[in-house]
Amino acid sequence: MSAIDKAKNKLEDAAGQAKEKLGAAAGDRDKENEGKADQTKSNLKDAGEKVKDAFGN
């Protein structure tokens, strides 16, 4: 996994966590769910990168 991809995934995950927390604090379920979706997307990308690494790109 390239360091750039890993950093992007971590940033996307952190942004998703922030969105989720802000949505929860404001009572905005749409924003909260959007944050959860961003985190899931980041985790899937990270898993895909790990699979590519396992098979030698």
TrEMBL record:
<dbReference type="Pfam" id="PF05532">
    <property type="entry name" value="CsbD"/>
</dbReference>
<feature type="domain" description="CsbD-like">
    <location>
        <begin position="5"/>
        <end position="55"/>
    </location>
</feature>
<dbReference type="InterPro" id="IPR036629">
    <property type="entry name" value="YjbJ_sf"/>
</dbReference>
<protein>
    <submittedName>
        <fullName>CsbD family protein</fullName>
    </submittedName>
</protein>
<dbReference type="InterPro" id="IPR008462">
    <property type="entry name" value="CsbD"/>
</dbReference>
<feature type="region of interest" description="Disordered">
    <location>
        <begin position="1"/>
        <end position="57"/>
    </location>
</feature>
<comment type="similarity">
    <text>Belongs to the UPF0337 (CsbD) family.</text>
</comment>
